[in-house]
Write a structure and sequence with these properties.
The complex is a heterodimer of chains A (122) and B (317). The longest helix of chain A has 25 residues, at 96-120. Chain A has helices spanning 7-25, 29-46, 48-58, 61-77, 85-90, 96-120. Chain A is globular and about 40 Å long. Chain A has 122 residues and is an all-alpha fold. Chain B contains eight helices and 16 strands. The two termini of chain B are 25 Å apart. Classes of the chains: A mainly alpha (122), B alpha+beta (317). Chain A binds chain B through residues 39-41, 43-45, 47-49, 95-97, 99-100, 103-104, 107, 110-111, 114-115, and chain B through 24-27, 148-149, 167-171, 219, 222, 225-228, 230, 232, 250.
């Protein structure tokens, strides 16, 4: 039997880990939940870079946590493990096409984050 | 099988929410989409219901000669075309069958030219296929698929410094005269045949060829998925004027200036009430209802879903 897993399963697994980490370590769980809830719509309305920059500017621990989760996952998927997502987007060598792919990946990942956060965080 | 068919073009004038009722994705109330491509659609049943409602409004027991000229139907004709009222639904089927409304042009914010009407070779090729079914034969061909990160345009209106900037994404553009001409032809044809006919659209008919952007298919798909309008809504507690518990939600809408098309097909009428119309006559009656505007989808009472309509019969181009 094939053990190859779909990208969706991998996203779900990572999102589950991220939300579990928030539940165990993060003090601002309610705030993380609210931020995760609005994140997909924020990205759709304002763009990924704008949204990331906004989280970074706010800089409270729940902003930082969500930023870290999205950044790490998207960078890993695009083959730039260890790099910072916002820095990569704003880099002159990053093409528009790659930025679009990053947006798509971030949205797909955030759907899982949002769903698990709604289930696990109060 | 159907005896006659025509095309209905739907131009979105206020944000359109043809919803699915619930969603587990990023937006609480997403719009209807095709399963495979993810492109937005408006399901045939929504269109059929709306055309029926408009037909009912313009029918009466026995319209006068003058009213007939203005497109009024007799109640018997209305029933023969749209089918009987629910409690007698089993008597016979209606004669009119709309298909799903599919995407043709999707507006995207542009750094130059305010917005571009985007489309893709996939969409154009599919449109050609669908026009074949209804006997409408546009005199243009689908251009070659643009390379990743490229866009096909005509003229310079969409050109910003580095190319065409749509939302936050830059596309470089093709220079070849041949490509430019293809894009221009498509733009002109759509302006003349697919945009609404009214005088208020004259400006837009002229603008369309210059603001048409044919994108790589993946890029176009991503725009239709991630550049729709997301509107946040709340319900307030009347006493406190603060958000009621749980009453904050997001709704997805097709943006203003989206162009959709839906085939309309018709059989001869099946009613036993003395009305016998051929498929072509059924379509002619529907087109002459004088429907230049209607409302589709949800949120009607907050002004959403106003669309301009255009009915085009095969061979008319």
């Amino acid at each position: 039997m094939s053990v190859q897993r779909t990208t969706e399963q991998k996203r779900a697994e990572r999102a589950w880990k991220a939300v579990k980490e928030v539940r165990e370590k993060q003090e601002k769980q309610k705030e993380y939940l609210a931020l995760a809830r609005s994140a997909p719509a924020d990205i759709q309305t304002n763009g990924l870079a704008q949204t990331l920059a906004f989280w970074r500017a706010k800089g409270e621990s729940h902003h930082q946590a969500l930023y870290k989760h999205v950044s790490a996952w998207v960078m890993e998927q695009l083959g730039h493990s260890g790099k910072d997502l916002l820095a990569w987007i704003t880099d002159a060598n990053t093409s528009s096409d790659h930025y679009r792919q990053a947006t798509v990946e971030a949205q797909a990942f955030l759907v899982w984050i949002k769903r698990f956060a709604e289930a696990e965080l109060k | 099988m159907f005896e006659a068919s025509s095309m209905m073009f739907i131009y979105v004038e206020t944000p359109l929410h043809a919803g699915t009722g619930r969603g587990l994705g990023g937006v609480d109330l997403p719009i209807q989409r095709e399963r495979v491509t993810g492109y937005p659609i408006v399901q045939a049943s929504s269109l059929k219901g709306r055309l029926r409602a408009e037909g009912r409004k313009k029918s009466k027991e026995s319209p006068t000669e003058e009213e007939r000229k203005q497109g009024w139907l007799s109640t018997a004709e209305f029933e023969a075309i749209f089918g009987p009222e629910t409690e007698r639904a089993s008597e016979h089927a209606g004669a009119l069958s709309p298909g799903d409304a599919k995407i043709l042009l999707f507006p995207v914010r542009s750094l130059a030219g305010v917005f571009a009407w985007t489309t893709s070779c996939d969409v154009l090729a599919r449109f050609l296929r669908d026009t074949e079914i209804v006997g409408l034969r546009p005199e243009w061909n689908v251009p070659p698929e643009p390379a990743s990160g490229e866009v096909l345009i005509f003229g310079t209106e969409l050109l910003a410094r580095d190319g065409v900037v749509l939302e936050e994404f830059t596309f470089s553009h093709q220079q070849s005269d041949e490509i430019q001409e293809i894009v221009q032809n498509i733009g002109k044809w759509l302006a003349q045949n697919a945009l609404p006919e009214g005088d208020e659209y004259r400006y837009w008919r002229e603008a369309l060829p210059n603001r048409l952007a044919i994108l790589p298919r993946d890029a176009f798909r991503d725009f239709t998925v991630f550049s729709t309008e997301v509107i946040t809504r709340v319900r307030l507690e009347p006493e406190t004027k603060t958000v009621a518990e749980g009453a904050l939600w997001t709704e997805e809408h097709l943006p203003v200036d989206t162009l959709l098309y839906a085939p309309l097909m018709a059989t001869p009428t099946r009613a036993k009430n003395g009305i016998q119309l051929s498929g072509a006559e059924v379509l002619a009656r529907v087109s002459s209802l004088g429907l230049t505007r209607t409302v589709l989808g949800g949120d009607e009472t907050v002004g959403r879903g106003v669309v301009a309509l255009r009915f085009v019969t095969g061979g008319a181009s």
